[in-house]
Amino acid sequence: MQAFDSEAVLRAQAGDEGARARLLADLEPILRRFFLSRIGSRPDVDDLVQNTLVRVHTSLEALQNPARLKAFAMKGAVFELQDFYRGRYSGREYLYDPDQPPHDPADTASAGLRVDIERALEVLTPKARRIIELREMGYPYKDIAEMVETTEAAVKMQVKRAFERLRGVLTLLVLCHVCFAT
Amino acid sequence: MTNSYDAILFEALDPAEQDALRRALGDDADAAEALALWAALRARLGADLRRDLPDADLLVLWALGGDDPGVLAPEEEARLIAARPSIEAALAAHPALGDVVRRLRADRDAFEAAWDEAAEPKPAAGPKTSAGSRAGDREPVRASGARRWAWRSAVALAAVAFAAVLVFILRRDAGFETYETAAGETETVTLADGSTVLLAPSSRLRAEAKDDGARRVRLTGEALFEVVPGGEPFVVETATALTTVLGTTFGVSASEIETEVTLASGAVRLATRLEPAQSVRLEPGQRSRVVGAQPPEPPTRADVAEALGWTGTWYFQATPLEALAERLSAHYGVRIAVDPALAADRVTGPFSSARPIAETLRALAVALDAEVEGGTAGGYRLVPRTP
């Protein structure tokens, strides 16, 4: 594609508006194909494509080697996808506003709850921990299933089991409190 | 409350649903406590991740440039060099980060596929039909009746014969993939678990086709392994040795009588095949060798950049800057001087030997808080950054 030739990229970097417009126009269908392949057909693809084009447009001058436009655009698209995961999915299951940063348990939890968390961590299986960590990084369960090479239903079953184990820990703790109290 | 847990655990709740949940939890103290603990547990795991990997963008750079340093800009490469130990520690502590690395590399591959697809020349447009079918999908020329049937019969017979051979081959190699390189050829292989292998010329690798948890490959020849962390140890079988790793970059050179392992990063254990208890542990920058049935040689210091130079990437391990500059000078054919104040500084990390010298020096300068003076004609000089 001529718009991606080193000379065309250099012209775009030097202020040739036509070269820049052609470069972004040729990049658009590539980005669309990429994001469609990663998150499927959904309205967010338009935002991701636009935001990546803005990234490339505003930072094109920082590209030191015009022959590396492909790697440059690829990094922009992958970073945009990461932002998408981090921003749109993280904390959705919490009762508080998901757009707010997750709270730090050390700041808000009572001493008793912190002890309970330590106990809960002890009973968490490595697989459940891995799934919850991936969820905390913003990946939806469907993607997590692909990442750990199982089905979405199996992933959710792991989460439910982890939650039930945690309820068991709570019951045990209550019983212990009763034992010590008597 | 139990029936509504699924929605709470897996669905995004709108404000009205959240209000309804709050009211329900107000009437069920046990459920409220369980959900509070669940939220706190998740927040704790998230906080631990952020503590061990404060800058998540570094993991992206690690994934995209870890097996192909040419992808990174010099400044990104410098950031990665500085953060390498902490990233390796985070990967070892959180297996989920290994999953993310594999995912990011799949993202990279998907982008490159989209790019390559766009770069492919489009088929010439043919006459449009009323049904709207694509001209490029149609046969360009159609044979006449009798010749067409004869041709089809021959093709069918050939297909049956080919299928029989294929079934034989598939049965023989069921569950395995074999990769071979010819003389003068290299090939990058991505294994089912996400680990990558760069095969040197005239080498052969046999690996499980599917990720069933067992991570074991068989090598004849030479290869560079970049192993992602995973549940099971990764084992490289050669004629004389077993090399066991947990997540690392290392080169193996194997013939029928000896196996030599050079470690770039991480840790590996090298053992003889006949007596696996006879083993040595290699640290980054070390090499060892198994000859025949003899125990592994004690690890010694290796010139990792030299040993793995065939990969197109230099793996420097605590290499003094002066020695590194000598290697760069020899490779690029330009003089590279180092200020005495920097000569003893040590550098660890991968550098692409295909990258222009100016970019490599810029990456080094950023990592070492130094500056690059001079240019191509009179050579370069690395000096401490002036405040």
Q: What labels would you give this structure?
A:
heterodimer; A: 182 residues; mainly alpha; 9 helices; 0% strand; disordered C terminus; B: 387 residues; alpha+beta; three-stranded mixed β-sheet; 26% strand; globular
Share of helix of chain A, binned: over 70%
Could you give the distance between the termini of chain B?
A: 64 Å
Silhouette of chain A: elongated
Number of helices of chain B: 10
Helix content of chain B: 25-40%
What portion of residues of chain A belong to β-strands? under 5%
**Average predicted confidence as pLDDT of chain A:** 79
Brief digest:
The complex is a heterodimer of chains A (182) and B (387). Chain A is mostly helical and 182 residues long. In chain A, 73% of the residues lie in helices and 0% in strands.
Describe what this molecule looks like in 3D.
The complex is a heterodimer of chains A (182) and B (387). Chain A is 73% helix and 0% strand. Chain A is mainly alpha-helical and 182 residues long. In chain A, helix 3 (44-59) packs across helix 4 (69-88). The longest helix of chain A is centred in the C-terminal third of the chain and has 30 residues, at 152-181. Chain B has ten helices and 18 strands. In chain B, helix 4 (56-65) crosses helix 5 and helix 5 packs across helix 10. Residues 124-151 and 157-173 of chain B have low confidence and may be disordered. In chain B, strands 1, 2, 3, 4, 5, 6, 7, 8, 9, 10, 11, 12 and 13 form a 13-stranded mixed sheet that branches. In chain B, strands 15-18-17 form a three-stranded mixed sheet. Chain B has a two-stranded antiparallel sheet with strand order 14-16. With 387 residues, chain B is an alpha+beta fold. In chain B, 40% of the residues lie in helices and 26% in strands. The chains are: A mainly alpha (182), B alpha+beta (387).
